[in-house]
Amino acid sequence: MAVSQKDSGFALKDCALIAIATGKRAITLKEFRDLLATITSGSIDYHFWGGMLQPRFEEREFNNDFASWARHSLHDGILAERLAMIDPADYQDIEPLRLELLEQVEQRLDESEYLHWAHALYPFEFIHAKIVVFDTRHRLKAPHRLASMLPRMSTSSVFYHFIDARRRLGGKDDFRQWLESFGDSYLPLCEELAAIDPSFAPLTELRQQLTDTFSRHFKGTRL
Fold first, then answer.
1. In whole angstroms, what is the distance from residue 169 CA to residue 187 CA?
2. In a shared domain, residues 84 and 168
3. Are residue 120 and residue 153 in the same domain, yes or no?
4. How many of the other CB atoms lie within 10 Å of CB of 15?
5. Each residue of 4-20: pLDDT tens digit?
6. Is residue 5 part of a domain?
7. Which of 9, 28, 53, 88 is deepest in the core (most CB within 10 A)?
8. Final residue of a domain: which of 97, 128, 159?
9. Looking at the DSSP assignment, which residues form a beta bridge with residue 19?
10. Mean pLDDT computed over 185-195
11. 219: Cβ–Cβ under 8 A, 6 or more apart, which residues?
12. 105 and 26 co-located in one domain
């Protein structure tokens, strides 16, 4: 007899990203467009989300590497702002996200002949990434235990369960996937979790948002 996710509990995991050079680089926006059309989906994923796992002393100016390159290397603020407005959390699959990126780049090329040949200050280096997953061996049997566990979770664990999960589960995070195994008992909590956008906040802030959400829901419950 198969063991349900509800019975087996929530398996707390952690992860690390391994960055791999693709050897593909673009020095003009036209070259960037051509490579963007064929680069691996893992590379696009990395340039949107990979920066969240990199230690830094200040907040990122842009939520993805493409916008940062457009602003600081191409010196095109218009394209940078357009690319920065793309929310990867709105896309359950990489290909529609790729098409949106291409549409914005091609529109900008149509608007400026200069950008067809202008050289960037430094090339855009396409990086591919693989995620390595670690089992922490922690198992949570009851949902309210997440309220006390979340403040102690590593940011990379938050990334795995709340961001990477969306690629694995068709737009759903691991927390909601588990909570839904209890039927409609935690539907309001699931709705609150679904409303949290992870794209524009550092992982420490995202962890606090999740902690606050679970704490509100289980207020008065002995943790």
1. 18
2. no
3. no
4. 17
5. 456 678 999 999 999 99
6. no
7. 88
8. 128
9. 129
10. 95
11. none
12. yes
Q: Check whether residue 209 and residue 117 sit in a common domain.
A: no
User: What is the domain count for the chain?
Assistant: 2
pLDDT score, position 2? 38
Q: Is 84 helix (H, G, I), strand (E, B) or coil?
A: helix
CA distance 206 to 202: 6
Write down the pLDDT at residue 221: 67
Give the ranges where the chain is alpha helix by DSSP (H).
Answer: 5-8, 29-36, 41-49, 65-72, 77-84, 94-111, 114-117, 145-149, 155-158, 165-168, 174-179, 187-194, 203-217
Token reading at 218: 């289980």
pLDDT tens across 59-84, in order?
677 889 999 999 999 999 999 999 99
Residues facing residue 131 across a β-bridge:
17
Residue 7 resides in a domain? no
Domain's final residue, options 74, 101, 128: 128
Range of the domain at 24: 15-128
The encoded tokens of residue 191 equal 């709705």
Tell me how far apart the alpha carbons of residues 146 and 211 are, in angstroms, rounded to a whole number. Answer: 8
3-state helix, strand, coil in the chain (%, to 5): 55, 15, 30
The three-state secondary structure class of 71 is: helix
Name which of 72, 158, 131 is nearest 149 in CA terms.
158
Predicted pLDDT at 5 = 59
What does the pLDDT average to over 179-205?
92
pLDDT one-digit tens code per residue, 150-166 = 999 999 999 999 999 98
Rounded Cα gap, residues 198 and 159, in angstroms? 9
